[in-house]
Specification:
The protein is of the alpha/beta class. The protein is 36% helix and 20% strand. It has an eight-stranded parallel sheet with strand order 1-8-7-6-5-4-3-2. The structure holds D-xylitol-5-phosphate (DX5) and zinc ion.
Length: 219
Amino acid sequence: MSKIIAPSILSADFGNLANDIKLAEQGGAGWIHCDIMDGHFVPEISYGSLIVKAAKDATGLTVDTHLMVENPDVCIESYVKAGSDYVTVHQEVCKHLHRTISHIKDLGAKAGVSINPATPVWALYEILEYVDMVLVMSVNPGFGGQKFIPSAVAKIKELNDLRTKLGYNFLIEVDGGIKKDTISVCAGAGCDVFVAGSAIFKTEDIAKTTREFVEIVNK
Ligand code: DX5
Ligand code: ZN
């Protein structure tokens, strides 16, 4: 499977959202990443399901929704209805993670689980068998434009080794501080999906930058 670039619209121009998404699509983006922040799990409030629906309506690409929220169980259904193909929740907030992952799948979406920089991979050991994706945060969630935390690379490698050893087929995604240099080291460690916000949408030529990222990870 070729590796996937998932531009995060957190750094897009919301006055021209559909156009920015189309440019990323022209550049070869495979997914569109939507960052939902509730002002509790993370300090900022970003946007909700209406914007996820707007992103879905703008593209035929897979919509990848990352819930940075304290209580995901109450809003998962609305994000699936808005068109999310993947819904990812944080391990740190789920008291009944297996139930939450099952809930996402019962609604017909793919289920992801994410870990913050301070959460070890072993915290996911009992859930790996049930998830479609593991999202390794390479910044502390909450803002675009932060610096990549290098310990994410060892976690990607550990997850890649575990899925081979245990015969699982979850995808590995990385999110935060992804630029031309950090993306290649993550690809080398076994990552499949690469979220990039500012490095794509804050550039002059969104399509060209996306294309460069696609080429780096697939070479
Ligand atoms: C961070 C979000 C990211 C964010 C990445 O909390 O989960 O998806 O948009 O932004 P960059 O690529 O600018 O670090
Ligand atoms: Zn994200």
